[in-house]
TrEMBL record, chain A:
GO function terms (MF aspect): glycine dehydrogenase (decarboxylating) activity
Keyword ATP-binding found: no
Entry keywords, A to Z: Oxidoreductase, Pyridoxal phosphate
A Pfam family this chain is assigned to: GcvP2_C
Catalysed reactions listed for this entry: N(6)-[(R)-lipoyl]-L-lysyl-[glycine-cleavage complex H protein] + glycine + H(+) = N(6)-[(R)-S(8)-aminomethyldihydrolipoyl]-L-lysyl-[glycine-cleavage complex H protein] + CO2
Protein name: glycine dehydrogenase (aminomethyl-transferring)
Domain Aminotransferase class V: 146-276
NCBIfam families: PRK04366.1 (NF003346)
From TrEMBL, chain B:
Protein name per Swiss-Prot or TrEMBL: Probable glycine cleavage system H protein
Domain of life: Archaea
Taxon lineage: Archaea, Methanobacteriati, Methanobacteriota, Stenosarchaea group, Halobacteria
Cofactor annotation comment: Binds 1 lipoyl cofactor covalently.
Stated role: The glycine cleavage system catalyzes the degradation of glycine. The H protein shuttles the methylamine group of glycine from the P protein to the T protein.
Recorded family membership: Belongs to the GcvH family.
Database matches in NCBIfam families: gcvH (TIGR00527), PRK01202.1 (NF002270)
UniProt keyword Cell division, yes or no: no
Segments forming domain Lipoyl-binding: 24-106
Cofactors that this protein relies on: (R)-lipoate
Gene Ontology BP annotations: glycine decarboxylation via glycine cleavage system
Record's keyword terms, sorted: Lipoyl
Organism: Halohasta litorea
Length: 473, 127
């Protein structure tokens, strides 16, 4: 594919800021302000631009950016799925836009959707109870571990450690530390999975929980999961499932059936809601029965009359976010699950695994660990994975996750997801192979066809040029 | 790749070095540590007069790859801070045992250096 990203340049700047395009100043009448003079202004710069100018500004910014709507985005462990547009229509429906303080009796439809999503997620994960409140995956993890802590405290068990495999997401370590636990890092065995003997040596009466991702971060299914669960449970610990890779299991296996007690769902990964770039997300948490009374409040339940009501679990850890969570994200996840249904969800996981395996077969790079599921960690060998990735940008695709997990040298963690067809996977494979076999000079100076060329990360970090300061210069 | 491990210093498993001079010691991070971190972009250090405690974090070093805590080899009072690092964090990369030093500390305990690594022990650790 021939690819050249859009460039709109004025002087030495790409598409100037709105306030650089026009600096119309308007007088402000602040005579009635109760604030002291030093806190108020007499005039304000407000760009006086026409609607077409503004529309073009944002369109240009979007063209100089990359998204799943632009092309393949195989960012391993991130599950960058296409976001079906019908879910935007559902979220934009005026009936969806109600104030969260409305009485339960006047919000039955919305509460019904929340209840329905709790039930969907519980069924998918094999859990008994679900909270929709956490606003992101990491927030879900933190909530889940706080629930585990509340459970242990409630039973008078003062435990101090959380066990985490070395290959886990960095957020797991941060979650355990933020919840006040000491982290015990577990080495991987030669095959890239949890080392069962090391686990047996690590568990003790101090073990509050084991946090595990399954399939793990190189796409390997933890085959010993039943024995892992028994080992942790026998020590009185809980088993936490990181839902980052749930897309590989949808409709095929359930964390609850494997022995997990707590899990979070990344609805932006598994259920195709937007990743949001730090904007609103959702990281619901599911638990088994005996942990349900510790979940955040409020939750939603169905009454004997078939109505829906909010309620506070008996020993709730309290709120982790406002109201029911990020409603407009949750309703998109609900819509996606309802549209795909049982067969569609199971089909998604099958195709996610097939696509990853097909793509890996087309690559000239080695894939040290396998057989894998929905993602794989190829190695760039003696080449710099970041350089290869930058070169891939020149071929009209987004590169995979690079240099992680660290158990694979110069890793390129790749997850095409189920959304790509064979033609796109071939294009992706071509980009991988072209970049991987390119000259040192080509990859070290790449990318050249994108709006911005190679970023000088060191200078950017040491001497950041902040826009608000730049405007004053 | 071989890393510089000067013979006149004492080391921590967490890759800090310290002199054992009297009355103040000088502390920094090793050649191996700066190489692992990559380009250092920010260093956060305590102020002169602050107390640091052996085995506890006394500061932070940030590179384009990672943010890492800095661990104190000894307990004592900070008597000098290398303020050059605030404007030129690259000194940690360019000269980790020289201009890239971080703190000078007056140790509060004479037995403070027990349990630290000799140059040979540290060489074994990073081998």
């Amino acid at each position: 594919m021939i690819y050249d990203q859009a460039r709109y340049t004025e002087g030495n700047k790409h598409e100037p800021l709105l306030s650089e395009k026009d600096d119309t100043t308007v007088a402000v009448d602040e005579t009635d302000s109760p604030l002291p003079d030093e806190l108020t202004r007499d005039e304000l710069t407000l760009p006086g631009l026409s609607e077409p100018e503004i529309a073009r500004h944002y369109t240009r910014l979007s063209q100089m950016n990359w998204s799943i709507d632009s092309g393949p985005y195989p960012l391993g462990s991130c599950t960058m799925k296409y976001n079906p547009k019908f879910t935007e229509d559902v979220a934009a429906d005026p009936n969806a836009a109600i104030h969260p303080d409305r009485s339960a009796s006047s919000a039955q439809g919305n509460l019904g959707v929340l209840y329905g999503l709790q039930e969907y997620l519980a069924t998918i994960g094999g859990m008994d109870a679900v909270t929709l409140q956490p606003p992101a995956g990491a927030a879900g993890e933190f909530t889940g571990i706080l629930v585990a802590k509340a459970y242990h405290d409630h039973h008078g068990n003062d435990r101090s450690e959380v066990i985490i495999p070395a290959s886990a997401h960095g957020t797991n370590f941060a979650t355990a530390a933020m919840a006040g636990y000491d982290v015990v890092e577990l080495p991987s065995d030669e095959g890239g999975r949890v080392d069962l003997e090391a686990l047996k040596a690590a568990v003790s009466e101090e073990t509050a929980a084991l946090m595990l991702t399954n399939p793990n971060t190189v796409g390997l299914f933890e085959r010993d999961i039943v024995e892992i669960a028994e080992t942790v449970h026998e020590a009185g610990g809980l088993l936490y499932y990181d839902g980052a890779n749930l897309n590989a299991l949808l409709g095929r296996g359930r964390p609850g059936d494997m022995g997990f007690d707590i899990m979070h769902y990344n609805v932006h990964k598994t259920f195709a809601t937007p990743h949001g770039g730090g904007g609103p997300g959702a990281g619901p948490v599911g638990v088994v029965d005996e942990l349900s009374e510790f979940l955040p409040s409020p939750r939603v339940r169905e009454t004997d009359d078939g109505d829906y009501e909010r309620f506070d679990p008996d020993h709730s850890i309290g709120k982790v976010h406002g109201f029911a969570g990020n409603w407009l994200v949750l309703i998109k996840a609900y819509a996606y699950i309802a549209r795909l249904g049982d067969e569609g969800l199971a089909d998604a996981s099958a195709k996610a695994v097939l696509n990853a395996n097909y793509l890996a077969e087309q690559l000239e790079m080695d894939v040290p660990y396998g057989p894998f599921h929905h993602e794989f960690a190829a190695t760039a060998g003696d080449r710099d994975a970041a350089d290869v990735a930058k070169r891939m940008l020149d071929f009209g695709v987004h590169p995979p996750t690079t240099k992680w997990p660290e158990m694979v040298p110069e890793a390129m963690l790749t997850e095409p997801t189920e959304i790509e067809n064979c033609r796109t996977l071939d294009q992706l494979a071509e980009a991988f192979n072209n970049a991987y076999s390119d000259t040192d000079e080509a990859i070290e100076t790449a990318p050249s066809r994108t709006t911005a060329s190679r970023i000088d990360q060191v200078s950017a970090a040491r001497n950041p040029r902040l826009s608000w300061q730049a405007l004053d210069e | 790749m071989s890393f510089d491990v000067p013979d006149d210093l004492t080391y921590l498993e967490s890759h800090e070095w310290t002199t054992t001079d009297d009355p103040t010691v000088r502390i920094g991070i090793t050649d191996f540590a700066q190489d692992e971190l990559g380009d250092v972009v920010f260093v956060e250090l305590p102020a002169v007069g602050d107390e640091i405690e052996a085995g506890s974090a006394f500061g932070v070093v940030e590179s384009i790859k990672a943010v890492s805590d800095l661990y104190a080899p000894i307990s004592g009072e900070v008597t000098a801070v290398n303020e050059e690092l605030f404007d030129q964090p690259e000194l940690v990369n360019d000269d980790p045992f020289g201009d890239g030093w971080m703190l000078e500390v007056a140790p509060s305990d004479e037995a403070a250096f027990d349990g630290l690594l000799s140059p040979d022990e540290y060489r074994d650790q990073i081998a």
